[in-house]
Prior knowledge:
Layout: E1 6-9, E2 11-12, E3 20-21, H1 23-35, E4 39-40, H2 47-51, E5 59-65, H3 69-80, E6 87-90, H4 112-120, E7 124-127, H5 140-158, E8 164-166, H6 174-182, E9 187-193, E10 205-209, H7 216-230
Parallel strand pairs: 1-5, 1-10, 2-3, 4-5, 5-6, 6-7, 8-9, 9-10
Amino acid sequence: xxxLPILMYHxxxxxxxxxxxxxxxxARQCRLLHLLGFRAIPLRELIAPxxxxxxxxxxxxxxxxxxLLGVYELARPLLRAYGWRATVFAVYHHLGGETEWxxxxxxxxxxxxxxxxxxxxxxxVGAHTLTHPHLTRLPAEKAYQEIAGCRHELQxxxxxxxxxxxxxxxxxxxQVVQMVREAGYHVACTVRKGLVHPHSExxxxxxxxIAYSDGALGLLYRLLRAWRHSR
Length: 231
């Protein structure tokens, strides 16, 4: 059965090692995938294949949580060199500001203008809630407002449908997943490790996390581990 990797990144070229990847490492990973014959697509382009229980061959999805500035400044040109597009998950109320949910470091977040520029270049903008809370710890009404409100605001900003969602901290339960479905999302990413298969639940997609120390060999190692985990 075919498998497809959704790669999980946060920042590129930022401070510290946590949730950060050096641009040189990302460049090596892109080159390796290109040499292996892979192409990269936004997450939204998996919606139709998953509905038909199939996957496109030799395909990878790059996802970047939090819409951090390093992605706009460094990841964007690296992927553009191969004609690739990715998905960035935005925390709407922090656009143009800083993260407040990281444990010890704050990272700068893209502005609304930069996020809009990415969308115009064919990148997908997905939703990551309004403020990046632990959704299972909120009252149901507040959690739904975080989920649906982010989609509404991003659609107003971008002038296009927002189809993808990412659970902050990977925090979810059956009630949260149902809220994501009711808010109108078609696909959603978790932090569960593994590869997507043709019968994956679209609102519970696993990913392959990429760490600071991973270069090309590190990427291969993580893909192999994800493959074994997904069998």
